[in-house]
Each structure stands twice: as structure tokens, then as C-alpha cells.
Amino acid sequence: MRKFLTALALVCLWPALASAQGEWRDGPALLSPRSGLAAAELEGKIYAAGGAGLTQPRNEVEVFDPDLGEWRDVTALPSGLERFGMTAANGRLYAAGGYAAREGVRPIADMWSYAPETGVWQRETAMPGPMASFQLVGHDGHLYALGGETGTSGMFVFDIEAREWTARDDTPDDVSRRGGAAVVVDGRILFIGGAHSGIATERVDVYDIASGTWSQAADMPTPRAGHAAVLSGGRIHVFGGRGEDLSRTLSDHISYDPVTDSWRAESELRSPRTDAAAATLNGMVYLVGGGAGGGFFAPFTAIDVTDIFVPDGH
């Protein structure tokens, strides 16, 4: 009953909250369309890697340099990957897990890191277990791998200096959701949405890194999985994804204020989009790739589009 009343209240309040914020602009097209990719900002550039291919996961990595205004190829991933985790930390890119070209439909535990100055991917210590459709985020010299419904449950923590993983078995079972999104803000990891057993949720779980404790934040207005999320201007922006039964691809764009623990509507996407990637650069959000369909249909609906969200006042 409580969740029903909460949902009803959000529905009633949503029109009042739904004033468009910011605008969308055209960005440079990727060199190749891809869905189920990963993206991260490192040293003033955005890297987009992997994604679903027609027959197997892709290994291409593209970098966007704002001074050049276009994407270009850099050293490919050591293996084709889709629905994997990638983040920037300590001056390197880290890519881990996912579905690998050599393994078919099975997730992997492998991890590699990339140094922009040398253009080389080097093998890192593998995760304690395989993970796919999960999230990898970095904070204060550590990486956190969480979520994912296929492979290993729980959360893994990687000490970058020691190059060692630790498995956190005290992670709530409800966090084992595929297609969720994770964002670090003020020393907390917010794990947003995702699906379990084919049903998406509006739930937002919060991990306090300093205390090692879990709690919950305000639910999203609607459930979703396969969405992209990124921190920009102190707000967490969430883009598209698929609805509760995963049959409908969404075009909405919402954002969360961690200070007031509240959500609001933002300027809608130009078209329905799922399994895209997002990164922030110079105060603007770059929404990269994705497609209109997920799962088996992802490679057939993949796009090469980069849309740029410019917040008000930028």
C-alpha cells in the first residue's frame, strides 16, 4: 500500500515537476553504430568502447576530442565486449566483465586498463567472479563493480594501488539487477533501476562508501532498465531505457537532486533509446550510441548518434 500511495503521489506531482530544463544539440556521429557500449571521460576526452555486433561483441574504441570535434579510432579492446563495465580512475581507463566475443553468452571476470599516453591495454587482476550487465565506478583509488543479474551476485571492490579485489558479501540481494545504472556523488554510490527476472524497477539503492552501509533513496517516477546515467551540475541525469516489462523503449529524461532526494523531468530525448552510454565533458552531457531495441534486437537497432545535452545557463 505504501508503494502504491508513493507512486500515486508522484503521478499527481509529475505535471508540476515536468518543466523542461536545458536543450539537446547535435553531436558528431560515431564511426560505427553500437548498442550495449560503455563510455567514460578521461583527461578532457570521451572514450566509447565495445558494444553489440551483428554476430559477436565489438572491440572498437573511439575517442572524442572536443578540440577536433569528431570521433577517431584508438587501440581496440583486447576482446570484443558488450554490456561490460568501464570507468576512468587514476589516469587510466578500466574495462571489466561483460559478454566477450570468445565466450558467447557467458559473462567473464577479466579486466584490463588503458593508458592514453602509450595507447596500450594491459591485463589487470580479474574480478573474483564473472559479471555482465553490471556497473563499474571509481572513487578514491578504488573501483566498485555492482549489479548484474547474470554471473556473480554481490559487489566487488578493487584497490587500484594494491591491484587486489575484495568481495563484499553483505550487499543486499535486491542490488543484483541487470541493466541498472550507477553514479558516485558525495562519497555515495547510487545504483538506479535495473531489472530482475524480466521486470524493471524504479528502486534506487545507496551505498555509503565510508561507512560501508546500504540505504534507499527516493524511487524514480517510473521503473526502467537499460538506461544511461551521469552526474552533471550536481544532479544525476537518467536517459531512456526500457519500461517495466522491458517491451517498450523510453524517450524520457529525468534528473535527481541528491540534496532534496527528489526527481524532476528534463528535456526529452529526440527518440526512444536504450543501452546507450553517457559521459560529461565541459559541463555538457554526451549521450552516445544505443538503439531502439534491446536483447536479441540490440545489434539490429544500433545507432551511431551522439546527442549533446546542454543544461540551462551553460
UniProtKB/TrEMBL annotation:
<keyword id="KW-0732">Signal</keyword>
<protein>
    <submittedName>
        <fullName>Kelch repeat-containing protein</fullName>
    </submittedName>
</protein>
<dbReference type="Pfam" id="PF01344">
    <property type="entry name" value="Kelch_1"/>
</dbReference>
<feature type="signal peptide">
    <location>
        <begin position="1"/>
        <end position="20"/>
    </location>
</feature>
<dbReference type="InterPro" id="IPR015915">
    <property type="entry name" value="Kelch-typ_b-propeller"/>
</dbReference>
<dbReference type="InterPro" id="IPR006652">
    <property type="entry name" value="Kelch_1"/>
</dbReference>
<dbReference type="Pfam" id="PF24681">
    <property type="entry name" value="Kelch_KLHDC2_KLHL20_DRC7"/>
</dbReference>
<dbReference type="InterPro" id="IPR011043">
    <property type="entry name" value="Gal_Oxase/kelch_b-propeller"/>
</dbReference>
